[in-house]
TrEMBL record:
<comment type="subunit">
    <text>Binds to mitochondrial small subunit 15S rRNA.</text>
</comment>
<protein>
    <submittedName>
        <fullName>Uncharacterized protein</fullName>
    </submittedName>
</protein>
<comment type="function">
    <text>Regulates mitochondrial small subunit maturation by controlling 15S rRNA 5'-end processing. Localizes to the 5' precursor of the 15S rRNA in a position that is subsequently occupied by mS47 in the mature yeast mtSSU. Uses structure and sequence-specific RNA recognition, binding to a single-stranded region of the precursor and specifically recognizing bases -6 to -1. The exchange of Ccm1 for mS47 is coupled to the irreversible removal of precursor rRNA that is accompanied by conformational changes of the mitoribosomal proteins uS5m and mS26.</text>
</comment>
<dbReference type="InterPro" id="IPR011990">
    <property type="entry name" value="TPR-like_helical_dom_sf"/>
</dbReference>
<comment type="similarity">
    <text>Belongs to the CCM1 family.</text>
</comment>
<feature type="region of interest" description="Disordered">
    <location>
        <begin position="1"/>
        <end position="112"/>
    </location>
</feature>
<dbReference type="Pfam" id="PF13041">
    <property type="entry name" value="PPR_2"/>
</dbReference>
<feature type="compositionally biased region" description="Basic and acidic residues">
    <location>
        <begin position="60"/>
        <end position="99"/>
    </location>
</feature>
<dbReference type="InterPro" id="IPR002885">
    <property type="entry name" value="PPR_rpt"/>
</dbReference>
<keyword id="KW-0677">Repeat</keyword>
Amino acid sequence: MFRLARLAPDVRQLQKDSGRSGPPRGGATDRAPREWQPRGGSFARGGAAGAVAGAATPFRGRDSRGSRDSRGSHRRSDRDDRTGYDRYGSEGSKREWKVRGMTPPTSTNPYTLSQRVKKHLDRYPDRMTRPQVDELLAIVRDVPPDMATAPVWNLVLARMGRDGYYSAMWKSFNEMKKRGTNATSRTFTVLLNAFAGVAHSGVVNDSFAPASKPERLTLERVRRVYDLSQAHIRAMLKAQTKNEGSRDNLGVAYPEDHDEMPTLLPSEEVSVWPTNAYLKFLGRYGMWKEMEAVFMAMDREGPLAPDGATYYTMLNTANNVDHYHRSMKDDSLPAIEVGSVGRAYWDQAVRSGVEIDDRMALAALSCLAAGSPADQRVAEELIPRLWDLSAPGQPASATGAKGKYSLPRAWDNLPTFSLDVRTATTLLSTMRRMGNKSLVAHYTRLIADGPLARNADLALLRVFIHNLAFAGDADGASTVLETFQPPSGSDGWPIDVYLSVMGAARWAADWDIALSTFRRMVALPPTAEGGIGKYIWKSPNGRPQDVRGRPWVPPRPHPVNPTAMGLLFKTALAAAKSGIKPLRAATDIYEFYGPDTFFEVRTSAGVVDMNAGEAKHWDLSRRDYGFIGDAVELARDLEVAAERLAETPRNTEDREKHEAMRRDAARVVRIWGKKVEERGDKKPRPRFLRSVE
C-alpha cells in the first residue's frame, strides 16, 4: 500500500496563493516559469543560487526521470512533487517493492541490467554489426561497475564470440576485469567456447580444420584463459565454508530486495566445463598431443574428472585426426592407432560411470571401425547391443543377443538407444569403413525395410544407396532409387547417388540397371539410341506417388560427364554374356554427345582441349587435374571398346571409324595420362573440413 507523504511547504504555499486546497492539478502550478527552469542543477532567478525545497531528501536508488544538482545529488521527479508522494521515504519503498522479484522500474541492478542486455540481443538474431556491438557494450558501460556482474558480462562476451568479434571480445574481457568484476568459471568457459567455434557447452564442435592453424596470438590468449580458469578453480577449492563463496565474488545477479537468496557454494565454481571447452579448441585444429596431455592431467574422480563431453571430444578428435592423416597423406598430424585409442577411452568412460549417450557410442564405433580386425570385431559386437538390432545370422526376434565375440564384463550394463534418422545415418556410414560387405548389407536392409525408412531424409536415403552399392547389391540400390521421391524435390537425386548405382551395376555386369540409371540421370533422348523424339519423364513405379505417399516430382537432369560415360563403357565391357550389343549402344551414346563434350575440360585456367595433341604447361590446380584424370580414364575405356568393335565391324566404314576412335583415345591417354601421373604425388592444398555427421 502506498503511503502518502505530507505536502511539502512549497506546495502548500502554492495552494494558498492560488486560493484552492488539495494537490495541484496537472502539475501546472508546481512548475517554475520558463526563465526559472534550472540550469546546471540550481533553481535560481537571475543567477542567484537557490535550492529546491525537498532537495535534501536522501537518495535511494537511481531515478532516470530525476536530474542532478550541482553537487551531484539527485532531485525527485516532478511527478513525485505533483502527487505529494515521498517516493524515497524510509518505509514507503520497502512496502512498495516488498514483492519478491520486483524492482523499482527506474532502478538499475544486475537483474534489470541483464534483462536490458537480453532484450538487445533478441533484437538482432543474426550476426550483429560493429555499431550494434558498440550499443551492446554501452549498456554495461553506462552503469556503475558493481551493477555489471559476471553473468551480465557473460551474455555480452558470448554473443561477441558467436558473431566472430574475437579481438573485441578479448578487450571486453580485460575491461570487465579492470572494472572490478571477477570472472567466474562460466566466463572462462564462454571465452574458450567462442575460440573453439561453438555457441555454448552443449554444442558439439563438428568442424575439423587442421590445415588452418590458429594464429600465435590467438593460441596465446586461449592458453592464458585456460590457465586463469585453472587458477580460479584452485582458489575456489581452498574455500572450505559456504560463506567464503560470496555472491559478489561469483558475480551472480539477483533482483533487488530479493529475500531468501540462496547461498552459492565454491563447489559450484569447481567445474570441468573450462577444460572441456579448451579440449574442443585443441580438437578443432587437430592438436592431439596437447589434448592427451590435458586429459592425463585431469582428476580421475570428483568434480574435475572427465565427464561425457570430455570422452566424446577425445573420441571424436581421434577419429578426425586418423581420417585426415589417411585421406590427405599429411604428416603434420600424428599417426594414431585409432582403434586401440578409441577402445581405451570407451572402456574408461564405461568404467568411470559417466553418462553415455548415442553420440559418444557413435564416436567410439567410428574409432573401432577404422582400427584393426580385433577392434572391428568389438564394433560388430557392440552394434546389436547398443541399438537392440538383430545381428547377422540371427532371427529378427533375437534383438540385442550376444554374438560370437566376448566383451568385458564391465560392458554388460551398457544402455540401449533408440534408432532415429540421424543416428541411423551415422551408424550405417560408419559400418562402411569396416569393409565387411555382408555386415553392411544386413544392417542396411534391416533399417531400409523397417518403419524408420518412412521418415528417412535425403542423407539417410543416400546412405541406403551407397551402402547397398558398396555391398554389390545393384538391384537393391536401384530399387531404393526408384522407390522413394527424394526430399530435394525438383533437384532430384545428387549425382553421386546415380554414379554409385552405376558403379554397383558395373561390378554386377548388369547393363540394364546401368543404362536405365544413366537415362534418368541425364534425361537421355531416344535419338541417342537410334530412336526418335524427346525424353519423356515417367514415374519409376508408374504411379503418381511413391511408396510413402509423396507425389513424384520430375527432376532436373544432370549434365553428362566423363565418369558416368566411363561407367557405361565399363559395364558394357563387363556384360560379355550379352554380346556386343551393349558395347555398340554405349558407343552410339558417346557419338551422340561427341568427343568435345568429354575431352574439352573447363579449368580455372580456361578450356583445355585434350584432343589438341599436346599438353600445354598451364598452372592447373589439383581439382583441374582431377577433371582431366576422369577424362583420361574415359579415354582408356574408349580405347578398349573401340578396339573390340573394330574386331567385329558391321562393315568397312565401321571398322575405319572405330580404328580412328581408338587412335584418338590412345593419344589422349599417352599425352595427358603422363601429366596426371606426374601430379599424383603432390600433396593436397585445399582446406580439409568435414562433419562428424
